[in-house]
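Hey, resending since the last one bounced:
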Amino acid sequence: MSDKKVQTTNQRPPKEAQQQRYRKFENKFMNILVSASLTMIPVVGILFVLNVHQQMGLTLFNEQYFGLFFALILFGVFLVIPATKNSPKNKVPWYDWILAVTGLTVGGYLLFFYPSIMLMIGQVTTERFIISALAVLLVLEAIRRMLGLVLLLIVVSFISYGFLAPYMPGVLSGSATAPDQLFNYLYLDPSAMMSMLNLAATIGLVFILFGQILIFMRGGDILNDIALFSFGRFRGGPAKGSILGSTFIGSVTGNPVSNVLLTGNVTIPLMKRNGFNSTQAGAVESVASTGGQIIPPVMGIAAFIIAETLGVPYVEVAVAAIIPAFLYYLCLFLQVDFISARQGATGLKSHMLPSFKAVVKTGWLIIPAFGSLVYFLFVVGYTPSLSGMYASIIAFLTLGLLQKSVRKKLFTKLYDLLFGTGKLMLEITIVLAAAGIVMGVTGITGLGFNIGMLLQGIADYGLLTLLIVSALVCIVLGMGMPSVAAYAVVAVLVAPTLIQLGVEPLAAHLFVFYFAIVSNFTPPIAVACFAAAPIAQGSPHKIGFRAMQLGIVAYIVPFLFVYAPELLINLDGSQAWVATGISLATAVFACYLLAMGVEGYLFDRLHYGKRIIVTVIAAFLFMPYTMWEYSWILNYSGLVLGILFILNEWKLKKKDFQPLTTKENYKLQND
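The structure tokens again:
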């Protein structure tokens, strides 16, 4: 089968899925209306972030802009997202027109009346009660259409708890709240939906725009070319290139599913042609795409929620995440290398790789975009939204004006990226609005305090027990939900208890952040694996279980930085660099041994006894030496035993090693 045929076959499912999700209008007026409304979302956001209204002498409360933004979002959702699978796909039925206009009304209410609302925020009028109730109900319907029943049931359960809290038994009993006060709080209070709308309308919009500029102006292609040129010639090169490319793009998109669809159409067929089976190729792409959210400096929108929640600069969160992210990708990279060696996978031929001249000619165009983002964030110290906006402008100018193929269609590309940003903001905003509802109910009823008391009871059995339970809660709550929503939910319910029990605040939030993320490739609802399955033409469940093996270190690293907070770099001058160096060195060696044990290969195939031995040695090294006064003994023992194991395997290496047959490899992968 030719390369072209493979790519065409694998690109079809995602495209068809996208066409089914959004309405496609035949009416010219409707096309203009939808295009204008979705394009206005980023345009209005750009003007607000750049403070154009202030330069024009207009006084505007932030909440008034949030109201306009929310109105455009709800209007767009009900115009372009059908209510059911059987709803019209080429026209807007009458009931969706009503919902769309109602969405404009509830957002417009904030735009025009917020100055008077602010003066009597605690006094709930009948008018405000109706508007607030409609806003919540519209968000619930938008959740159902865009995100499915899982998240809808979770949010409805929390709202129901808001009414039933006084009647709940034991530790779940909460404060009574009148319906008008509850809906008013959920919509207008800074601790509920308004907080999340703030995040969506500023930071979220800016970094989605930044990602869209890279994608529509060939930035994604350039990053993929750099990745393939860097690793494509080595054994397992396409898989290693997939890891690097998916990391680059995933750090910008912040969405594992989108990342799989963007990069997987290129990388998965390449991996399959290089000797990886469908399950392996889909799993590598799923794990690599998911990890993009933990890579600084962007880290998806959830990282900004951490900074907002803790009241710390975003820079602090980004710097702290460097070592955990390095360990995540190091282990994945090592496992892919061992798989490639075991299967005899070679690198790509030179004619299949991007040329050095082409990479140099276009690769440098990425530097101003990411360099300016790092400069404005870390050096100048601008806010994330303003830094992202300036970086977006620079990315647009460099990628748009300095590439002839893009420059010829610059205005078309500009429209496409603005329209694409508006479309993506529909889901991002609804996700964050859902998280805002959960946060609001948790706060007004005292549920967060009650959950904390419940988890403290579990903590009586030790911090490790609490962490394991918390990790399971995070994974379960995160299944089927976007990572932003999953993190926002578990951060409210779990992180405060971990902090109360002595875990450093940043470590606690990164702990729940990691486990909310790994739910993307953890069965049974591994959404990244389901996205990769049609491209790889494999079973999503098999891909999910293989992804758990490839992403195994992601289940370990969060425990490491809770017990060894020195792995989270801080810039306040209190960093114990010696402790950081020792913990990092032992963790790196542990990743090498763990990858060896999981994949069953070093210089030759390892039988199960050796795989168990080397995995136990890795566990000795993973244990932070600051965790326990005698941990250094385990670390030292692991270091010595690990070196002796490798030296022994070197001596026993078979000169006439033959790669596994397809049948043997299949058996090993499914043991």
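The CA atoms of residues 260 and 492 lie 29 Å apart.

Sorry for the duplicate.
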